[in-house]
# Entry
Amino acid sequence: MSLPFLLEIGTEEIPDWMIERSVHQLKEFIEGLFLRENLLYGQLRPDATPRRLVLRAWDVQAQQDAQHKTIRGPSEALARSGDDYTPAARAFLARNNAEEKEICIETTSKGNYLAIRREIPGRYTVEILAEALPSLILQIHFPKTMYWTGKTGPRFIRPIRWIVALLGHDVIPFELAGVRSGNVTSGHRRLGSARIPITIETYEQTLRDNFVILSYAERHRMISEGIAQLGIERRPDYLELQQTLAHLTEFPTPIVGDFDSQFLELPDEVLTTVMRHHQRYFSVQGRNGELLPKFVAVMNINADPEGLIRRGNERVLRARFNDARFFWQTDLRKMLADRVEDLAHVTFHAQLGSYLDKTNRVEDLVRQLGGDKHAQRAARLAKCDLTTELVKEFTELQGVVGSLYARAQGEPEEVCQGIREHYKPESMADYTPRSVAGRLVSIADKLDTLRECFRIGMAPTGSRDPFALRRAAQGVVKVVVEGHVEIRLADLINSVPGLRDFFEDRVKFYFREEKNYAYDEVNAAMAAGWDDLLDLQVRLHRLQKIRPTPDFEPLAASFKRIKNILRQAEFTGGPFTPALLDPGPESDLFDEINRSAGQPIETVIGALRPKVDLFFDKVLVNAPDPAVRANRLAMLHNLLKHFQTFADFSEIVTNS
Amino acid sequence: MDSFQDIIFKLKAYWAERGCIIQEPYDVEVGAGTMCPETFLRVLGPKPYRVAYVQPSRRPADGRYGENPNRLYKHSQLQVILKPSPDDVIEQYLGSLEAVGIDLTQHDIKFEEDNWEAPTLGAWGIGWQVMLDGLEITQFTYFQQCGGIDLDVVPAELTYGLERLTAFLQVKDSVYDIEWAPGVSYADVRLQDEVQFSVYNFEMADVETLWKLFDLHEREAARLLAAYPKSEVKARFPLLPAYDQVLKCSNVFNTLDSRGAISVTERVGVIQRVRKLAVGVAHAWADQQGAVR
# Structure
């Protein structure tokens, strides 16, 4: 027999960003339990709202299969004495509470033994679940947990207030944190009933009748559709915001509100940040993408017939915008350039001084990188917005705010762009600065942080990287490569102990994970040097192109062979005398090497490969005559050197 | 329409009916209701306790000379402590909103994660900011640790921002337009404080004097804390006065901060100094409660 299963953990409001991962853990745990207990099951479905983590399963086996077990006793020889059983046999029976008639004989490779066969009935699933669920629920991992029943009580993300646990029509009985499992759920906090008995069949519909939409996907859809019905022309596609809202609500309903169009004089970035990040509103755009004086809020209730909620939200937004405008106007009164000295009071790091110190270093670095006067100016002003009221209030707008003030105060556009973009890229998916000044300041700012942190021994260790130095280094690589910035990275990092090795890993990571080059291609190209990342990128590109050509891999295999031969011979270079060459394959190879000198690799491998193959086929490198041998090694050494500024082909993993 | 004071009366009556002692504000300057001994010390130990009080809370850096409609140097919190937290604490809380006339079927309530933390007190908890139609009206916290001590019993702390709540109910855009009592506005009662304390905190407070005060209060608290372990009759040892000295330090620190006299680097160190004293008092207090019992 198989039954449906329902577990609903009723809690107080779970933080939106933890819901999805925790309910998936719940699913894994239940599935693991079924597997461990040899219980067959059909479909599993996790669901969640802010107040409940739910798992349903269908076609769960109601009882484990019976197990047959053989208990072996003494050997037949020891067990019988004539027709009678020996004391040993009787002791065996007594120990297992068995009677004589249950005895059977088991034949093994060692002979016959007395045995008893027992059928162990399978346990009922309801019992198994009642036993396992309390600890299984508490195993769900949350980044930050609490206790609520007292210091020694269980820990969970928020207090557990009710538990529904059903297998078929039966309650799976257990207790957790003083809560007894049952068949009573709870509806929407204001629109639904607080205590509702349910069955598995009626569960989802009963919740719906009580204004709880169990499915996250459906709530997500309700937001999209609700917004569409409001006649909103365009809105930015804030996927993350929509996900948050679908996790914050049990019955999401979007409404549209207005704000005074005089606030549109504030920069769009400030307005949308207030709406999106601080109020969780969608902003609304007109046909041409321009911001309209409207917003969309998503309520956790079904309607706002009186417009009370709309007006409430409008008032809150007005207050927020008033604040922002106050900060904007206050900040504008002071020139950005006059704020540079104030950076002396903003600590960059206790051991590394203030942001003024950093600004001075970054400015020098930008000059050293060949930055023009705009780039230098951008470097000078880049951190000034840290002292503005607006950035203190909206820290996520650092850089953006600086550029807005710079523009309002008449700085050249190139400088404004440089300030704005210098934090970019903030992740591998983020874009790189589009302006030259932005690229140079971005590189200089990140390099400065890296150099200074490494200088005082704060290199990341293992998973600990509090200053996000890996991201900074990757950012440098990304900006140099994708922004085509012609600098020699080596000149900037080699003098700091540990930094070159650190960068080597980041460069590898970048080309492998971001640019999808094969790891052996990256190793081969980098072995030929990576001081100039643009050159490295070109070589990688070429390497990737010639790799599938028929002559490449065999040639690479030969190069690996050459490298091994040289290593075994401990040969690191020596004089080469053409006169010592034998005519035939050896001379032919020499001629081919000469012919290909200075030619791009793409044009030479076709001719080179058969010559190399023939050489190895016909010529013994380890010739008996030491002079001949040394000469051959020297020629092979020269052949390798020939390509050493392009790639080390022996790093290529070949099938041959 | 309920006045500011009507709303306070109603909330106090609501919580009194649910077993809370109604306390008066603590008479030493604090930055938040949590810092009063009625919360900071009472949450320690196993003894159940329920209390509600309005606490004027001073945050020198938040002053705006009475010019900003939403920001105040001194605002009023209604602080409710329910120790231990009842199972239906959220329902009780929502009931208090209905008690002041908010029809919850007509408004949007959301509980958004916000884990409160007070480094100077060695205290933190898990909870939410409660949003009413997009406005944060309450901080709801399950205390987990206070004075660096894991709490035996978990209290729920509800902190209502009374000015915001009233502005919401009275539909006022500026806190100064709130009607405090019939015919009397919030500005009539409080605007002078806001102006004068902003001038003092931002412009005229004497930094040197404040540092001296900080040192003096710190020394006095430290002196008492050092004497406690050696005291003969612990039950009557003046830990409450020692804690007052800690509160004084905290307020002086906040004033120095608003005066721009504390660099970011120094900040961490000064917070540590206050925290050390607060944690010291909390541990001594927990010990003393054991002795009293």
